[in-house]
């Protein structure tokens, strides 16, 4: 999962580029904010040029390479997304390069291998570029290190020692421009607010309420390559990024009136996934590094990469969640210390809930975790 940081912050403090992302399977998306907008004509006009690293992720980018032939020139343009590699500081300048071409839209560019070099006409070595494929974060041939050239422009090398980038990346002096077709409207996502999380939600609400007001304790973004739903071309068009929020809430798991014989043991589901509009996802299966949740059949499936799943579970485990057994029996003994007779009793458990939403705000799924070590009781 990715947090966002404004580009202007790195312009003011370049040393911040070396800060590693927090937690496993994490990354940083750079937002080109108003204070970092490029200009030309002595600052009087906006420019579409991206002249330095890191590249912004809220802009649609294109790699431009100009070849001069005497009085004529030829310009190649390749529309791409540059997504920072997970678990790397921005100073590493490592990116997954995602195709925005119609035929391979949403797939990751690959490096060829040195052993695949062939000899062509006049004994000239030739490299056949590998076709883009679905992103595999463990595939080193899908990772590229971009370098800024002193004479202007950029070049890239494969992170794999024997890798050869596709032609548009291995050429020296290509430039990057923002596309006129628009940008991705990414809000601020600072990750986890540990102070708010540790404070826990306010418990001052009437017993008639089954749930307390939710409190947001974390916000991240997940690039579309890590979420599987519907057609990938529609996905990149309508939701190139998904917002992931973490909320806390008190949830009532038991209630009774002051009558003899009331009480007992409550069984609580420690985790639950619900697909928006479809209900609880009772079935899970892992295929090619993706966990699929479904309710009634394949048409209701939502896929999430194991990297995101592992990060979610890590976030919950470090806050004390121990619910891998699926269900937990809750039994508490509490003594009412008030001076008046109580009428009603309620038992509440702390729930942390991840909400995955598309860029238009529509809900994709929720993943709830009940922290049975955080139990509170209420009398009226």
TrEMBL record:
A Pfam family assignment: DUF1262
Protein's name according to its UniProt entry: Insecticidal crystal toxin domain-containing protein
Taxonomic source organism: Erythroxylum novogranatense
């Amino acid at each position: 999962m990715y947090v966002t940081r404004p580009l202007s912050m790195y312009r003011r403090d370049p040393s911040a580029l070396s800060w590693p992302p927090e937690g496993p399977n994490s990354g940083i998306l750079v937002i080109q904010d108003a204070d970092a907008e490029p200009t030309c004509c002595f600052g009087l006009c906006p420019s579409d040029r991206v002249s330095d690293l890191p590249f912004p992720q809220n802009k649609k980018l294109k790699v431009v390479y100009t070849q001069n032939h005497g009085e004529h020139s030829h310009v190649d343009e390749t529309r791409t997304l540059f997504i920072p590699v997970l678990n790397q500081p921005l100073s590493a300048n490592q990116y997954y390069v995602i195709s925005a071409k119609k035929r391979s839209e949403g797939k990751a560019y690959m490096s060829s291998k040195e052993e695949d070099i062939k000899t062509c006409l006049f004994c000239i070595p030739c490299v056949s570029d590998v076709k883009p494929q679905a992103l595999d974060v463990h595939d080193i041939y899908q990772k590229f290190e971009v370098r800024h050239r002193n004479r202007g422009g950029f070049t890239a090398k494969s992170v794999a020692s024997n890798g050869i980038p596709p032609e548009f990346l291995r050429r020296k002096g290509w430039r990057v421009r923002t596309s006129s077709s628009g940008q991705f409207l990414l809000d601020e996502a600072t990750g986890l607010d540990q102070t708010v999380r540790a404070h826990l939600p306010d418990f001052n609400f009437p017993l008639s309420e089954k749930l307390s007001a939710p409190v947001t304790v974390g916000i991240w973004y997940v690039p579309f390559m890590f979420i599987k739903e519907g057609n990938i071309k529609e996905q990149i068009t309508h939701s190139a990024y998904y917002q992931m929020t973490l909320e806390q809430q008190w949830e009532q798991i038991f209630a009774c009136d002051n009558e003899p014989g009331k009480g007992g043991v409550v069984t609580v589901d420690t985790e639950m996934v619900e697909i928006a509009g479809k209900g609880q996802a009772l079935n899970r299966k892992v295929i090619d590094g993706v966990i699929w949740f479904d309710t009634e059949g394949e048409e209701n499936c939502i896929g999430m990469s194991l990297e995101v799943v592992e990060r979610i579970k890590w976030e919950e485990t470090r806050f004390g969640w121990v619910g891998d057994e699926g269900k937990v029996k809750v039994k508490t003994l509490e003594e009412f210390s008030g001076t008046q007779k109580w009428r009603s009793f309620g038992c509440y458990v702390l729930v942390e809930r991840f909400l995955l939403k598309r860029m238009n705000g529509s809900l994709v799924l929720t993943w709830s975790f009940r922290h049975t070590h955080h139990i509170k009781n209420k009398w009226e």
